[in-house]
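fyi for ur records
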Amino acid sequence: MPGTPPPDQCRILREANFRWEGIEQEAYKAEGTHFSGARRQTLVGQPAGQQAPAFETRYFEVEPGGYTTLERHEHAHVVIVLRGEAEVVLDQRVEAITPLDCAYIAPWAWHQIHAVGTETLGFLCIVDRDRDRPQRPDPQHLDELRRTPAVARRIRT
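which gave:
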């Protein structure tokens, strides 16, 4: 039978203005031109000194007009918008999402999130801790995605 976890494993992260105490804000990705105006905080999962569960909960912000990388991967993830408005590319369609909408992004689905409107987009992303590396589209995949006019107008590479 499992015992009681040590008290330091359970914690509350206090939020103020979409920043959580003790959690550093990081670059969205190390470098690149395939995304714009995005940054993140890992709330639960990988920060040093924490016991890592089987998932990560991350908070992302995307400045108005910014976007995440157009990519796909084997792992699924969930996106829950907390503030702002977005359009999300999900394979061959584009969907508007607003606060408290939840997007399930299935394995191998091409996806990209765009901040629309004048407010910073903020969303939680819940993903497996151990996951594969994202794949960016090659020219053939880009051609396939661009066959849908709404997707062609929205995607950025």
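Residues 7-154 form a domain with the Jelly Rolls fold (CATH 2.60.120.10). thats all i got for now
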